[in-house]
Amino acid sequence: MLGRPHRMREAGDFKVAVRRGVKASSPTLVAHLSIGTDGDTSVGFVVSKAVGPAVVRNRVKRRLRHRVRDHLEHGALASVPAGSRLVVRALPRAASVDGPTWSAALADVLTSAVEKAERRGGVRR
């Protein structure tokens, strides 16, 4: 699972990432990435009731946490500077997608967000 220091919990952190960060999307996920300069990289998840009942939403969040952790360690997010903020929002189709398709969609969205942030020269907090 994603460690406690990497979990985003404050509403202000979500707001900064969504408003000032770059956005990348797929039919199942949307990622907002705000490049930071210090501290731990934090990740927040948004899974609305449109995704499904509580059991389904919690399953989607568990999948997200697990896969994002892998990307933080040695995937698309390994090159992101410490202190960056990432918000991953699950769209309603996320509940009905199988594992491999879901993993590929997450990898594509994260890679796209990192590339956009790098082209933009980083996003200030």
Name some characteristics of this structure.
4 strands; 125 residues; alpha+beta; single chain
Task: Provide a descriptive summary of the structure in words.
The protein has 3 helices and 4 strands; from the N terminus they run H-E-E-E-H-E-H. The protein is of the alpha+beta class and 125 residues long. The two termini are 27 Å apart. The mean pLDDT is 85.
Give the fraction of residues assigned to helices: 40-55%
Calculate the mean pLDDT score and round it: 85
Strand share of the residues?
15-25%
Q: What is the straight-line distance between the termini? A: 27 Å
- Global morphology: globular
Largest sheet: 4 strands, mixed
**Order of strands in the sheet with most strands:** 1-2-4-3
Secondary-structure blueprint:
Elements: H1 11-20, E1 22-25, E2 29-34, E3 42-47, H2 54-74, E4 85-90, H3 99-119
Parallel strand pairs: 3-4
Antiparallel strand pairs: 1-2, 2-4
Helix pairs in contact: 2-3
Summarize the structure.
Helices cover 42% and strands 18% of the residues. The protein is of the alpha+beta class and 125 residues long.
